[in-house]
C-alpha cells in the first residue's frame, strides 16, 4: 500500500527569510511555476498584504492556470485587538485569491505570554476564531502550531488543546512546527504518535528547521509516525540554518522505503536536480556543492580507490543511480588524482586510453602541477578538456587565436564618479594581426568586448556565446604576501543555446586570471562547435 | 549516569576527499593541533606510505606532544597477494609512529567479490590476519567495516561474521560504516542493536556519510543504540555529500540529552565555532553560512516578527544560547528589515534610539534602497556601521580622506607574460592633496598600495591593517545586459591585531567595487581606532 505524502513548499515565504535571499515578485512567479511543473502540491506564496512583493505575487499568479499545485497564503491568527473578521491580515488572506491558507498560532503558553502578552484561554479562542473565519472563505486551512514541540515538552495538555481547538474549528491539517529547530527525531516520533492518538480524526503535518542538522530526519520520523503533510523548502533554504530540505526528503521517501510512500506525481523525480539548480539561480545563491542528491559533488568521485571501483561498477560507491534524480556521476581531476581518473575523463571526450600509456602519466604530472598552483580542475572541466585535447590530439587543437598584447585603462575622477574602462587588444588570428579597442562596463567586460570584436569577423558564431557567471576566490591568504596581493582564481561559466561550460584562470592579478578564463572559454566554444560540425558531417 | 562518547575525527583523511579540499602536510599539522586543543580523542592523519603529504604529516606530528588526542593511521586490510606482515601498507601503518590505527575491510560479500575479486572465506581470513598483525604492533586497532549496513541488509550473517573475526583478532572498536550514505536512522538503530546483541563484549562505532542528509541523525541513532565511538569530520566535509558533521553531533549530544552523553572535555564546547572557522580557513573552503550551531547564519534573525520577539527574549527563536558553542546572535539589516532591526543594530554601536524617531525611518529607507542595488549589508556589517554612524553622529564621522582621482593601467605583452599593474591615486587628506603612484601584484593590490602610501604619513596605524579575504559575486546575470557587463559585489574582509571587519562595494566595474570596499575598510579601521582611543581616555 503506497501512502501519498502532501508536499507543502515554503521556499517563497520561510525560504526567503534566508540571510542571502531577496526575491522579487518576478522571481517568486518563476519559482512557483517551476514548482508546479515538478508536481509540488502546495506553494506558499507569502504574506498577502504585508509587503508590496507579496501583494504583487498573489495578484500575478492568479493569472496562471497551474497544472498541479495550489497556491497557499500565509499569516498568523488574528491580532488580539481585532476580531477574526475585522483583522486586516486575515482579510488580506481571504482576499488574496489563494484557495488555501496556513496560519500560525501559539501552542505554547510561554510564547503566548511572552511574545503576544496573551493569557492561555484567550489564545485558544483566537486560534479557533481565526481558523473558523478562514475556513468559511477558503477551500482548506492549515494550522501551523508554532513552537509545538517545545510547547508540548513544557505542557503537553495545553499544546494538545491548541491543536484540538484548531481541529474543531475545521483546520484541514494540524502542522506541528519545530520553530527553533531544537527537537530530536526520537522526540518527534513520540510526540507525533501521541498527538495522533489524542486526536484520531486529525491530519498531522510537520514543519522542521535545521538548527541541529536534523530537519530531514525529523520530517521522515514524523511521516513514519503518521504525518501526511511535509512543509519544507527547495535546497533547505530558510532563516538561520534553514528549513527541512525537500530535495533530500522527497527522494529519500520515494526511493528508500520500498514504495511505501509517494510524494511527486509519477515520473517527476528526474526533474529534481534541475529544479534545485533553477531555484538557486533565480534566488541568486551559490548552490551548495555537497548537497545530497542534487549537489554538484553528490556523485563526484575523487579518491583513487573509489574511482577504480566506480569504473568497474557504479553502485559500489553510489547509494542510488544519479540519473534517478536527474544528477550525474563525475570523476574528478585533482592533485590527488590517479591515472584511472584521467582514463575515465578522456573516455568521456572520446579518447580510449590505457592506464599505462606514457601520455597518461605526462598528463597527470601536468595536471597535478597546475592544480598545485590553484587551477581548480574539479570545477573547470572545460579547461581540463582543453588541456587533455591539446596533449592528446595528434593534429593538436587548432589555435584559434593568439594574444600579442592587451592594455586596460581605468580612470575615475572624484569619489562619486564611476571609472571609465578602455581596453586595446592585439591578437594574431590565422596569421592576420587584429588590433581592436573597446570600452565596456568594467575592465573584464571591456576585454571581452575587444576580444570578440577582433574575432567575430573570423568566427561569427561567437555571437551566440554568453558569460553566465564568474567567481573569484583568494587562494593563498597570508602565505604569498597576502591581502590584495594574494593569488586569485577566476572561474567563468559560459553558455550557448545547447550547453554550459566552466573555465579557470589563476594569477595574482585579477585581470590576468579573468583573461585566462575568458580566452579558454572562447577557445572552448570554437573547439566545441568545430567538433560538432565535424561529427555531424562524419555522420552523413 | 553520563556516558563518554569517543570522538574520532577523519577531517584529514576522509574529509580531504572533498571535491574542494587539498591539504598540504603543513595544513594537516595545523588542523591536528587545533583538534587536539578542543579535545578530540582520535585524529586520523591519513594513509601512511600512500603519498608524500601523508608521509610528511606522520613524520612531523611525531615531534609534537599532544595534550589530549591520539593520532591514528588509516589503511585497508592486507592485499590478497601478500600476507599481513609482508603487506607494504600494513607495515607502513605499523612504522608510521601512530599509536592507533583504523583499517577498513569488506563486510559485504558482493563488495569483496566485485571490488577485490575475493571469495567470502578468504576475505574473513584477511580481516583476522590484518587486525591481529596490527594489534601486535600498536596500542589500539579499529576495524572499519566498509559498506556494513548495505552488507547487513544483503546478508546479515556474513556481515556479522566479518565483525566477529575482527573482534576475535583483537579489534578494539568495530566501526559500522555507511560507506555510500544510503542508510536511514531507523535501520541504523535496529542494526546497531542487533550487532550488540550478537557480539555482547564488542565496542561498536559509527561512520556515516551524508548522501541522504541523515549522517548526523544516523550517528545519534547509533549512539542511542549503544555505539561508543563516532567517526566524522569538522564541518561535515568529505567525499560526495560529506561525512557526519562533528560540529552538529557534539553539541547535540552534549546539550540535548540532559547530560546523558559527554564528548569533549569539560568546558571546551565554547571553542566549537572557532575550530570550525579555523578548519575552513586552513582548508581554504568557504564556510557554509547556514551550518547548524557554528555557521554565520545559525543565530541570525531577519524576519520582522522574529526580530521584535528576539529583542524581547532570545530563547523565543533560539534553540540554545549561541555563546554555549562560541557563536553569536546577529540581527540582519536587509531590504525586508523592519525598524526594530535598525534599533537593535544601533544599540550595539552605543546609540539608543526609539523605533519611531524619524532618523530610524530615514536610515531604513536608505538601507533598503542600497540593499536593492546589491549592497549586501547582512554580510558587510562594517559598511552598515559606517552608514549608520555617518547618519547618526551629530558631529558626523570624520572624513579621513577624499578621492580626487585614480588611474589603473594594466599592460600585458604576448600570451605567456603576466600583466604589469600601475596605479596613480590623488586624494585630499585633511586639506592636503596627496598624489602618489604605485605598482602592485594586480590592480587591487596596486590601488591598495597607492592609497596606503598617500595616507600612511597621516595615519601610521594603517600599517597594522591587513586584507584577509575578498569575494566577488555577479549579481544580476541576464537582467542588466548580463555576462561580463553584470553588476558585481565585492566583499572585503580586513583585520588587525584585535578585530576583523567586512565591507562592501557594488558596481558593474570590479575595480570600482573593490575601491569602494577598500575605501570603507580603511575608513572603518581609522574610525575604530579613534573611537577606541576616545573611549580609553574617557575611562581614565
Automatic annotation (TrEMBL), chains A, B:
It catalyses: pyruvate + acetyl-CoA + H2O = (3R)-citramalate + CoA + H(+). Pfam families: HCS_D2, HMGL-like, LeuA_dimer. InterPro entries: 2-isopropylmalate_synth_dimer (IPR013709), AIPM/Hcit_synth_CS (IPR002034), Aldolase_TIM (IPR013785), Citramal_synthase (IPR005675), LeuA/HCS_post-cat (IPR054691), LeuA_allosteric_dom_sf (IPR036230), PYR_CT (IPR000891). Its EC number is 2.3.3.21. Keywords: Amino-acid biosynthesis, Branched-chain amino acid biosynthesis, Isoleucine biosynthesis, Transferase. This is Citramalate synthase. Belongs to the alpha-IPM synthase/homocitrate synthase family. It comes from Nitratidesulfovibrio oxamicus.
